[in-house]
Write a structure and sequence with these properties.
Strand content: under 5%
Radius of gyration: 12 Å
Distance between the termini: 24 Å
Largest sheet: none
Shape: elongated
Oligomer: single chain
Number of domains: 1
């Protein structure tokens, strides 16, 4: 969850006008990849518990991003 908090701080400090210039799909894709890259393992090689954790982080961050758009 440390990675999620770090990403949260990074992305929520982005000005709303800049967020609006990027499509929601691109933005959530960037967040998803950033969450996956936080570990040295490849996403698909993780245990299902870790995959689920990454997906939940992604969904939570996506909700926050969508609230700004």
């Amino acid at each position: 969850m440390g990675a999620a908090i770090m990403l949260l701080q990074m992305y929520t400090s982005t000005p709303v006008t800049r967020v609006n210039q990027i499509t929601v799909v691109q933005y959530t894709s960037i967040v998803f990849h950033a969450v996956c890259i936080q570990t040295s393992e490849k996403f698909w090689k993780m245990s299902w518990e870790r995959q689920l954790n990454r997906i939940m982080c992604f969904l939570h961050l996506s909700q926050i991003i969508l609230s700004f758009v």
